[in-house]
Specification:
- By secondary structure, the chain is of the alpha+beta class.
- The protein contains seven helices and ten strands.
- The protein has a single domain, classed as 3-Layer(aba) Sandwich (Beta-lactamase).
- The strands form three sheets. Strands 2-1-10-9-8-7 form a six-stranded antiparallel sheet, sandwiched between helices. Strands 3-4 form a two-stranded antiparallel sheet. It has a two-stranded antiparallel ribbon with strand order 5-6.
């Protein structure tokens, strides 16, 4: 499935000088399709919502509890999901006590994966396949490494993940709503690529738009919008109040002067076209 890249649905797509793929949907219909949506690209940190959902399925099934100890001393599963465990970005000992600051942490998600794997009795990539990829039929997705950044797949499967986040079927609606609610409110921190945010709101593995500025979503996005972007030049966002999901992948890695400049305009065009 592909569309004519010379006539994109949204004007800002023409500003990318490399192949991209974008799909927008509501809970039951695909609203627009642009680019080669069957092309497989790395997701990088868009892997984190996938890993978070797999963790939430483990919680739903009773293998894991949100507030059980996990990771560094004093931290819990909730801290790890919400980047509040005190672990640094990629390596080293905790820089501070849990719950003091929002420190975006690949290491934290890897610690989370180890903890979940021990509870479910299988390695984390296998659990992700069993708990999420197979039931949602996300057949293009390959995930064999870090829970922070190892997934790849096509944009239709990013969209499929987003639709599950909008209308959960693998977990209860109550747990789904909790996942997109701010955890440890008021924590400051740095949003990679977009600088210090005060506060830097995060849910259970999902970044929450809130009032952040600058940001990769539209300037007028609903504060309840949640999702993630990745250094591969990928994004997934869900607007729960408008019932919209948008998924984007591209051939080139994130650049602040390109993606950081175009994505807010592109997302504003999506909202203008489809938000009620």
């Amino acid at each position: 499935m592909a569309t004519n890249s010379d006539q994109p649905t949204y004007p800002s797509l023409a500003r990318f000088d490399f192949p991209t793929a974008l799909v927008v949907a509501d809970a039951s219909h695909v609203l627009s399709v642009d680019g080669d949506v069957e092309g497989v690209y790395p997701w990088k940190s868009v892997t984190k919502p996938l890993a978070a959902l797999a963790t939430l399925v483990a919680i739903e099934q009773g293998h894991v509890r949100l507030d059980e100890p996990a990771g560094p001393e004093g931290a819990t599963v909730r801290h790890l999901l919400a980047h509040a465990s005190g672990l640094p970005f990629e390596a080293g000992a905790p820089a501070q006590a849990p719950g003091r600051r929002r420190v975006y942490s690949n290491l934290g998600f890897e610690a989370l994966a180890e903890h979940v794997a021990a509870r479910v009795g299988m390695d984390f990539p296998t659990w992700v396949h069993v708990a999420v990829l197979e039931p949602l039929e996300l057949d293009s997705v390959e995930f064999t490494g870090s829970a922070a950044h190892a997934a790849s797949g096509n944009v239709l499967d990013v969209l499929g993940l987003g639709i599950e986040l909008l209308t959960p079927t693998l977990i209860s609606a109550e747990l789904g709503a909790q996942a997109r609610t701010v955890q440890f409110p008021g924590l400051d921190g740095v949003l990679p690529g977009f600088g210090r945010q005060s506060p830097n709101d995060w849910g259970l593995g999902y970044e929450i738009r809130a009032a952040k500025s600058p940001h990769w979503t539209a300037p007028g996005a609903d504060p309840a919008t949640f999702g993630h972007f990745g250094q591969s030049g990928s994004f997934l966002w869900v607007d729960p109040n408008a019932g919209l999901v948008a998924a984007f992948l591209g051939e080139l890695s994130f650049r602040e002067s390109v993606h950081g400049a175009i994505w807010p305009d592109l997302n504003a065009e999506i909202l203008e076209a489809h938000r009620p």
